Amino acid sequence: MKKRFNTKVIHSGHGTDNETGSVMPPIHLSTTFKQNKPGDFKFEYARTKNPSRDVLEKLLAELESGEQAFAFASGMAAINTVCDIFGSDYHIICSDDVYGGTRRLFDKVKTNIDVTYIDFDKNVNWDEIVSDRTKFIWLETPSNPLMKIIDIKNTSTIAKDYNLPVICDNTFASPFNQRPLELGADLVVSSSTKYLGGHSDIVGGSIVIKDSQKYGEQISYLQNAVGAVPSPFDCYLLTRSIKTLSVRMKQHNENALKIADYLNTNPKILKIHYPGIDSKYKDIASKQMEGMGGMMSIVIDTNVEGINKFLKSLNFFTLAESLGGVESLIEHPAIMTHASIDKDIRDSLGISDNLLRLSIGIEDSEDLIADLKQALDKI
Length: 379
Ligand SMILES: *Cc1c(COP(=O)(O)O)cnc(C)c1O
What we know:
Blueprint: H1 5-11, H2 51-63, E1 68-72, H3 75-85, E2 90-95, H4 100-109, E3 113-118, H5 126-129, E4 134-140, H6 152-161, E5 166-169, H7 174-177, E6 187-191, E7 205-209, H8 212-226, H9 232-242, H10 245-264, E8 269-273, H11 282-288, E9 295-300, H12 304-313, E10 318-319, E11 329-331, H13 343-349, E12 355-359, H14 365-377
Parallel strand pairs: 2-3, 2-4, 4-5, 5-6, 10-11
Antiparallel strand pairs: 1-7, 6-7, 8-9, 9-12, 11-12
Pyridoxal-5'-phosphate is lined by residues 74-76, 99, 101-102, 140, 144, 169, 171-172, 191, 193-194, 203, 205.
């Protein structure tokens, strides 16, 4: 029967257990499985495939409207695997404002991949940047930490002319707010450590593909050969978390919009990067996203001392890296998440020393606004 998104998060990936009738899927810890005769089995060895990961992967595939999903031990393990699909010694095109760890992997670990970073806000001369060595286009939208929005549909149409796959990091939006495969992307990567996990207690990652004929076998091969797989317990926990993805995301979206509207009225805030109110991105964002998400960054009219005073005065925003959990977090990109990017690149991107990134949780928005207000009053 047809399942809409909120039904999928509850019912996809598993039914009731045939043997016991258990309503929720069990955790299968066994590392090896009995074969009926040599080579005749459903599961063989737990790294290759196991029942708990199977449930999660089927669920993720349906949520992203893909044909097949692969779970990994972290978002970075998933991104590394995507790079390995295309071999080595090649060129890629990447949006310029990406997760610090993604840039570190591309620039400092995968040294035989050449990367052209592109500001998608400007006109892109594709003929000039695409060469025979180009293997894919990497998009992160909304981006981290500046919440830039890239038109996925438009970019995918252009990519088809050049026969290039589009890979989209969907971590910030989550499949509740945005499904890149429906917009023309070929692969979707997520850090499930963030909204999918949602409780800041699991590290995980995933790749979902539109066409399993095209990449399925190769990703399965790499997933098994490299072995950066999540444990059955983490797979179970993630499946459990995803059951509340829709209700959590609705609250993240609602709270963030209210907070952005409040901050917009506060004269100490010089700039708010939030697609819901950013006139530059509002139109594309509302076309390709169902909600604007819980992430924003703000520029405060103060110096480093003022920033530290502001951070110290907050009660409900914990100073911590990461995002997407039920609790509100705040962080300083230049010193924390984006410190691995060289300062001149940070400056050119606009990651200034008075920029803070907020992950809006699902507390009462009135309390969060009151907290921000009293801390801003102190500087
Ligand atoms: C956190 C994050 C990653 C990396 O994921 P891990 O699970 O931390 O390895 C990749 N992309 C984005 C956008 C992220 O926020």
